[in-house]
Amino acid sequence: MASLCYLQPQVHQTHAKAEALDVPTPVIDALRNLLLALNLPTYGPQAYRPVDIIDALSRNSPSKHNTLFSSREHQDAQELFQLLSECIKNEAAAVEKEGHRDRGLGALAEAQGPANSTLGSSVFDGLTANRRSCMECGYTEAVMHFAFDNWQLNLPRAVCAQCRLEDCLADYTRLEVLTDCICRKCSMLATYRRLEAEAEKLTELAHGDQDPSASKKKRAREARKLAARVKVALDDGRIEEDIKGVRMEKVFSRASTKQAMIARPPRVLALHLNRSVHFGHYASKNTCRVIFPEILDLTPYTTSGQLSTSPSVPISTPPPSIPRSTTPTPAVYATPRVLYRLSAVVCHHGQHSFGHYICYRRKPRPPSAGPRRFDPPKLACPLGCDCEQCERIGPVRDDDAEPPRPRRGWLRCSDNTVWECSLEAVMQESVGAFMIFYERVVMPRQSIYMSTSPRSSEETVRPEGVHVNGSYASLVNGSATQDVQIVKPIPTKVSGPRVIHRVSAQPSSRSSSMSPPDRDPVPRPGTQSLASSSTALPNGHTVSSSKVNAPSGPHVNGGVTLGAERAARVRPLSPLEQTAYPTSSTSSRPAAHHRAQAASQSVSFPTEPQPLPPIAVDLRA
């Protein structure tokens, strides 16, 4: 636990707040001192006995004192972790509760400090979404969420078995078929059929007698009322509600499905590999080899924004895998991923009733790192990147990450013996791995343009956009959080290829696009029209300046080729031309500059320098 970057800042914050509020936190205080001692480098071999943390846990849980602390028998590391996690959670909740009390004028001074909403929650806490559905009637119960601080994964029992950690997670989150579950809707349907039969029977008895008693008529009316209540509840979908005066039947579904997935991933993922195998009164150790990765992608085992209620369909469908490429497309960044990096491994060597625990952990950063000493891991490059840095270190790394030296980067802790080792040595502990700790990777901000290098992908040529009030606007700066204001809807239907003058991924540039010759140009916001006038040309055509819009921005630098079947139009003015020829009146322009060629049917003004000819790109594909 000393290698967890998320745990140590939370312990320090809880300790500081507990001292300010005068709240006793013996376990957190002892744990803080223990973590500081374990992460402090020494010049020589020294042994540290964690007496304070054992005494604090003993006083906090007197009922477990004899079994966990007094005896010198073999103990379970997972039980100690659960006890420590529970004590941290309870003391942090007590500090948070004391902070919410009315402290009079003293609360004014505390209001100046930074608020931490995650102080009361543990870094190990997460939520699982559980769903159970009946395959006979199709009814799905409400999705229940349960908190967890560690996941217990079962291993295959085959002799000399081998599996991957992803296989254990997939087995935990798979659809499980049950045959001994009570279905609420099937029970309500059976209750309705029973009440209908009772009401019909009582009605026949009441009508069959020559002189039916009032009690028989009353029982028949009551049975019909109860049946009507159940019928209304079924029609309204109020399956889980209890109906007053109705004794519900209990019907076991012959086939129902159950599934559990992670709804809220924790900051620190603690995985417990259950290696206990029980055969009656005899227990043995499962020696299955578990291959665990350094970077764990938890996305296929987490829920997305949409939950399915179909009995035969998983709760959520995982996103597609990311292919390896040196130039990932923007679609790669649009797919949210839940990544974790390996932080520590607790291994057990021995048999089920005896043995020895050792721990592998990442080497801590030196105190000279300052505030970045406990920074969590970050995704520096996209998944599947083949750059040189990713080949040497990997896409997930620290800010000051450097390639580790041979047989360095990790610590092997066995009681009072500690030495450095490599990541490869940790990966070889597939037989003895008992608990695995992963820390969540901080993902970069999703952006459309992550690089300025040219790419031939269509989504690079045509930037992504957003629809606002029926209009379409491009997000040229790659940020989807900015406000986009559109004055007039921009039509999106294009009958022919567009003429693109410039496509740039720089945030300060914009793409200039003109309409094809067979479509009237649509005025866009931020443009100003020339004065309404017409100019006679030598070839008989007339140029109408009322239909010409000159954008006010300096980003337009191209012209428009005009068709022979339509009236000639003047292309937008460049900034130099706007200075030479004011747009307030067309009478001040020299008539000698108005020249039209019969072959091209185009009108142009002299520019200095001349812009490059536009390139026609067909984007209809």
Automatic annotation (TrEMBL):
<dbReference type="InterPro" id="IPR038765">
    <property type="entry name" value="Papain-like_cys_pep_sf"/>
</dbReference>
<dbReference type="InterPro" id="IPR028889">
    <property type="entry name" value="USP"/>
</dbReference>
<keyword id="KW-0788">Thiol protease</keyword>
<keyword id="KW-0645">Protease</keyword>
<keyword id="KW-0833">Ubl conjugation pathway</keyword>
<comment type="similarity">
    <text>Belongs to the peptidase C19 family.</text>
</comment>
<feature type="domain" description="USP">
    <location>
        <begin position="1"/>
        <end position="441"/>
    </location>
</feature>
<dbReference type="InterPro" id="IPR050164">
    <property type="entry name" value="Peptidase_C19"/>
</dbReference>
<dbReference type="GO" id="GO:0004843">
    <property type="term" value="F:cysteine-type deubiquitinase activity"/>
</dbReference>
<feature type="compositionally biased region" description="Polar residues">
    <location>
        <begin position="576"/>
        <end position="586"/>
    </location>
</feature>
<dbReference type="InterPro" id="IPR001394">
    <property type="entry name" value="Peptidase_C19_UCH"/>
</dbReference>
<feature type="region of interest" description="Disordered">
    <location>
        <begin position="306"/>
        <end position="328"/>
    </location>
</feature>
<dbReference type="GO" id="GO:0005829">
    <property type="term" value="C:cytosol"/>
</dbReference>
<dbReference type="InterPro" id="IPR018200">
    <property type="entry name" value="USP_CS"/>
</dbReference>
<protein>
    <recommendedName>
        <fullName>ubiquitinyl hydrolase 1</fullName>
        <ecNumber>3.4.19.12</ecNumber>
    </recommendedName>
</protein>
<feature type="compositionally biased region" description="Low complexity">
    <location>
        <begin position="507"/>
        <end position="516"/>
    </location>
</feature>
<dbReference type="GO" id="GO:0006508">
    <property type="term" value="P:proteolysis"/>
</dbReference>
<dbReference type="Pfam" id="PF00443">
    <property type="entry name" value="UCH"/>
</dbReference>
<keyword id="KW-0378">Hydrolase</keyword>
<dbReference type="GO" id="GO:0016579">
    <property type="term" value="P:protein deubiquitination"/>
</dbReference>
<dbReference type="GO" id="GO:0005634">
    <property type="term" value="C:nucleus"/>
</dbReference>
<feature type="compositionally biased region" description="Polar residues">
    <location>
        <begin position="526"/>
        <end position="549"/>
    </location>
</feature>
<feature type="region of interest" description="Disordered">
    <location>
        <begin position="497"/>
        <end position="621"/>
    </location>
</feature>
